[in-house]
Each structure stands twice: as C-alpha cells, then as structure tokens.
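Methods — Computational structure assignment.
A single polypeptide chain was analysed. Its primary sequence is given first, followed by the predicted tertiary structure written as structure tokens.
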Amino acid sequence: MVTFLGLAAMAGSPVFRAGRVYLGWQYALAHPDPGPPPRRPVPVEQEQLNPGWLSAQRREEGLLTRYWKVSAGLCLAATALVLVLGTVGPLNPALTALGAAVFVTLAGLSVRAVWRGNRDLRTTVAAEVRRVAAARAVQEGQLFGRLEDHARQFRDWQASQQMFARQPLWYPVALPDVIDRVDVAGGTLAGWSALLTVAAGARLAVGGEVTVVDLSEGARIVGHMVQCSPEEMRFDMPVRVVFKRLTERVTLPVWRPDR
C-alpha cells in the first residue's frame, strides 16, 4: 500500500477546488493576445513663418512705396537747388523761402507715406507671427493629448500582455458541484493510469490524499483508507479490504490496516 499525501507546495492551488472531481484538461485562452504595442504618435510638421511669404510682403511694400521714395528724393533735390539759386542771386529771398518751404513740405509728405508703408508691413508681419504662434500652440496641445492617450493605451496593452503571458493554457475539467464521486469499471491499465494521474493530481493540489494499494495478485488499485489517520500511513503497510455500506443497495470496498 502506498499513500501520497497532499504536497505543501501545491496546497491552496487556485487551479483546483476542494470537494470537486476533475477528470481531464482542456486548452483555452481566457485572455487573447493583445497584439503589437500601440504606435507612438508622430508629431506633425509645426506651423512656422514662411520665408517666401515674408519676402513677398517686403517686395510688395517696396513697390508700393517706390513712388514716394522717388518723390521724396526729388523734393529734397529741388529744395537744395532752390537754396543754391537763392544764394547765388537768381532768386530773391522771398521766392527762395517760398520754394524751399513748398519742396520741404512735399518731401515730408513723401517720407510720411514711406513710413506708413513700413508701419503697415510691420503690422502685417506681427499679425502673421501671432497667428503662427497660436497655430503651434494648438498643434502642441493636440500632440500632448495624443501622447497622453498613447501612454494610457500602452499601459493597458502592458497589462493585457502580462495577463496573456502569465495565463495557464490548460484548465482542469471538473464535474458539476452536485457530483462528488464517480464509479468507474473496466478499462485498461493505460486508461486507469491516466485517470489516476488526473484525479489524484487534483486531490493532492488541494491538500488531500490518494491511497494506492498493491494487491497480492499483482494488480494496483486506488482505494479509500479507513480506521487510520494520515500520520499513521506509510509505504508497504499491509492492508485488508472491508466493505462499507453506503445505501441499502450500494456497498463500497474500502481498506484498513491489517494489524
């Protein structure tokens, strides 16, 4: 007689439950493969001030103010000529003063027009810079949002990947809770060995015991020990069969020490 007590390393195993009968195993994936990790979002090209647009604006401003620049230059030249003529004598002081005042006024108006063109150009460029800055701020906010979503998705993927990698691939098949015993008759040595391996392994995993009896005729069977505590069991213990009446119509052979 050989008695295998439940192994301490297997006791409390979450795969098996005490009081249930396990007859086999099945392959199943409780957690599917999460697949490849989520891809990190790629930043889009940021909005920036277009050098070509800036050159075009400056070129256009130069064309619009070219007339006023020429006018200012001619008026200043005319003012200098009037002063020279008034100095050498062809013009009297009154005409000299009047001509110089007129040309200086026209030159001032031309310079003012050039200044206003430059001011409008600076205003346009400043507005474009603000627009570019606002667009970049929106792009950066959207990128940060996508990065946060990616980080959350990556954490979820890591958790799913760990659950997938750590899950058992084979699960024990148990009878319904209302069934606590199975009577098997007939079969072959290989079949009985397989049944013993499955049923006994489940009992050992939850701290139970399995008794294997070597009969005098050479066969080996599994039975239930009575009138003997697990601490008293040992290898090569002689045993004797006794019969335990379960019901009026069912009697079960069990084993007790042959003392």
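Note: The first strand starts at residue 2 and ends at 5.
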